[in-house]
Design goal:
alpha/beta; Rossmann fold; 4-stranded parallel sheet; two-stranded antiparallel ribbon; 9 helices; binds zinc ion; ComF family protein; PRTase_dom; DZR_2
Length: about 250
């Protein structure tokens, strides 16, 4: 039980330490002027995605495609829109891993800083929702990295966060190496609504750190839609853009 208290405290110490030290690049650690930013060299190495690509799934469009890609036209995904700040390459991966496993909680602010410009024209019936962790994983890690990012975005976008409306009831094994239908099966029934009224007729903006195949977010979207959400979008820090990376 003690570790449940020590772990969040450890994160807090890390955060305080990050504020006490001069600002450093979130990629390489080089001293820079701004807190939570990247040095020019790391900045150049990042593949910024923003609002580009398919207006539904966010993946790069082929030359002949208009606003929505052929895959989404043929089989519309459960998510109405997916966007990510950057492509999942070496630096974004390291940022995500240091936040999650290195407890560098200040990096949640870095992620949010670059995700904030992806705000849509959602209107006031909009809520932000971090992709939930299973309670065992939350207990082991001490925090949900996506919830930290969601809190930061909530402040910047002036939108409420629904932290507990959706619950992860199934602990899923890592989806690495599975194909699309195996991933879908693995996350089926992983989420249930704890508070369906919180999402009824709302636009729900799911927040996650990394998007690989999208199966987890799709499973969330399925539950949210069933509970009456009018639209479900996903905004994440980094996403796998090339399908070849999925099997890694
Ligand atoms: Zn750097
Ligand atoms: Zn698409």
């Amino acid at each position: 039980m003690a570790s449940a208290i020590v772990r969040p405290l450890w994160g807090l110490c890390n955060l305080l330490l990050d504020f006490a030290l001069p600002p450093s690049c979130a990629g390489c650690g080089e001293i820079i002027d701004e807190v939570g930013a990247f040095c020019p060299e790391c900045w150049r190495k990042l593949e910024w995605l923003g609002n580009s690509g398919c207006q539904r799934c966010g993946l790069p469009l082929a030359g002949t495609e208009a606003e929505v890609c052929g895959r989404c036209l043929a089989a519309p995904p459960k998510l109405d829109r997916i966007r990510a700040a950057v492509a999942y390459e070496e630096i974004p991966r390291s940022v995500a891993l240091r936040l999650k496993y290195g407890r560098k909680v200040a990096l949640a602010r870095t992620m949010a800083r670059y995700m904030a410009p992806l705000k849509g024209e959602w209107g006031d019936k909009t809520i932000i929702m971090p992709v939930p962790l299973h309670r065992w994983r939350l207990w082991r890690r001490g925090f949900n990295q996506s919830a930290l990012v969601a809190s930061e975005l909530s402040r910047q976008w002036a939108l409420p966060v629904a932290r507990h409306a959706l619950r992860r009831v199934k602990q899923t094994k890592p989806l690495k190496g599975l194909n699309h239908s195996q991933r879908r099966k693995a996350v089926a029934g992983a989420f249930t609504m704890r508070d369906p009224f919180a999402v009824k007729d709302k636009i729900v903006v799911l927040i996650d750190d990394v998007l690989t195949s999208g199966s987890t977010a799709e499973a969330c979207a399925r539950s949210l839609r069933k509970a009456g959400a009018s639209r479900v979008e996903l905004i994440c820090w980094a996403r796998v853009v090339r399908p070849s990376q999925l099997m890694r």
